[in-house]
Amino acid sequence: MIRSETKIRVRYGETDQMGYAYYGIYAQYYEVGRVEAMRLLGFSYKEVEDRGIFMPVIDYSIHYKKPAYYDDELTIVTFLKQIPTGMRIPFEYECYNSMGELLNTGIVTLVCVDKISGKPCPMPTWFREAFTPFFP
Amino acid sequence: MIRSETKIRVRYGETDQMGYAYYGIYAQYYEVGRVEAMRLLGFSYKEVEDRGIFMPVIDYSIHYKKPAYYDDELTIVTFLKQIPTGMRIPFEYECYNSMGELLNTGIVTLVCVDKISGKPCPMPTWFREAFTPFFP
Amino acid sequence: MIRSETKIRVRYGETDQMGYAYYGIYAQYYEVGRVEAMRLLGFSYKEVEDRGIFMPVIDYSIHYKKPAYYDDELTIVTFLKQIPTGMRIPFEYECYNSMGELLNTGIVTLVCVDKISGKPCPMPTWFREAFTPFFP
Amino acid sequence: MIRSETKIRVRYGETDQMGYAYYGIYAQYYEVGRVEAMRLLGFSYKEVEDRGIFMPVIDYSIHYKKPAYYDDELTIVTFLKQIPTGMRIPFEYECYNSMGELLNTGIVTLVCVDKISGKPCPMPTWFREAFTPFFP
């Protein structure tokens, strides 16, 4: 399993007039979480793109339990629970506030796309092999 | 059933370096869609808040089929397929580009929260009754 | 002179916990305003990019007089007061609410950049000539 | 003088299709910078609001020299060069990338507003006095 934790502080511009972190901002927070999770593989998502692979999102779902507020320091826990096979990579998430309360959970599924053709493609070997050490 | 259509043009600042409308922006597009759907009830979401009810999102899921691009004019179709009972209001979505291609589908479920107590509450009578004409 | 008016409604996700449209959102509103102003030239900003020219912002300033609120319908008035010479195109802005109150004013200066070299370049002839009819 | 440094990494959702960090995102980065600068005073901006003072932006200007890119780690340097008198607090900014290149400079001027009346007000004594140690 891959598991990583990322701290993110809620910005003023990310709140809405309810005083909550806007429900749409978690797409960014989760994105930051999986970018940090991927660094554990030994390269960055930026390098994945430089090597010719885009990874757009194909499915995203989130369940909100409690709101986050301005200036809260959140912990985004990102999981990859199974070694990816085929074209899809499902990241699972838990988001906690600084009191340890679970604020929301979610799943974001990415797909590999060839940068030149713009079409979905299997995960390249160098990419697939980077996951192996985490799933012994 | 309630059904409404809203046009939204993709802004430059909403694209990402893949050249797609960022996957996180649809939370805003869907929000605009349901605000327009709610105007059909005879009042605005702004008035709902003025009358003491917040409507935060409790569940959000979206399935992406094709990307939208900069300057595309999208049509957000918002549905409320069943009369809301209890505290939850599930809006369903379809997003099309100007060629009529279905780009994504989603569901956003709102819950009523009392503005003063900050706790979930049943939908007030004036609110519930506004839905009646749409579900004869 | 080029002058265009664009209507934009403040989205919920664009408000902050002060209840104002976030001060940073006007960069997007002004961008929408100049994109609509440019359509008067007979092509879109999208086509400008397709023809090999990027137009990044080099200077941006805004003076806020009054806030905008959620669901307000704003009018962005965009001006190009002088025919662009050299590499810079300065757009001037006025933003009004639906009661005709002036909320903010600003200036955004764009520069032409060659998409391939990534370097600033003079405005191409086809682009420059499109401005001529507006400055007789 | 007050001077503080904040690190911010450019998120994917903050890029645009030019491949740059969108010009409008610096309003958020600068906001994060001044929030960290204010923590040096011994309280957070959140506490300022809790004590009844909003601090909306009245003037914002930014000059862009070079773009930032996805995954760049930026350093936002925030300065308050003079002790604030009257109602205005001008923060000055420099934004650098990890190679030490100056990407942009800016000024954001805040004004104190009484949360209840919604009107501009002088800076309260507890707030003003917090600045004194930095301007001996």
Describe the protein in words:
Four copies of one chain form a homotetramer. By secondary structure, chain A is of the alpha+beta class. Chain A has a single domain (2-134), classed as Thiol Ester Dehydrase, Chain A (Roll), CATH 3.10.129.10. In chain A, 20% of the residues lie in helices and 35% in strands. In chain A, strands 1-4-5-6-3 form a five-stranded antiparallel sheet, with helices on one face. In chain A, strands 2-7 form a two-stranded antiparallel sheet. The termini of chain A are close together. Chains in contact: A-B, A-C, A-D, B-C, B-D, C-D. The A-B interface holds A 17-18, 20, 22-25, 27-28, 31, 49, 54, 56-64, 67 and B 17-18, 20, 22-25, 27-28, 31, 49, 54, 56-64, 67.
Notable traits:
homotetramer, 136 residues, alpha+beta, Thiol Ester Dehydrase, Chain A, two-stranded antiparallel sheet, 7 strands
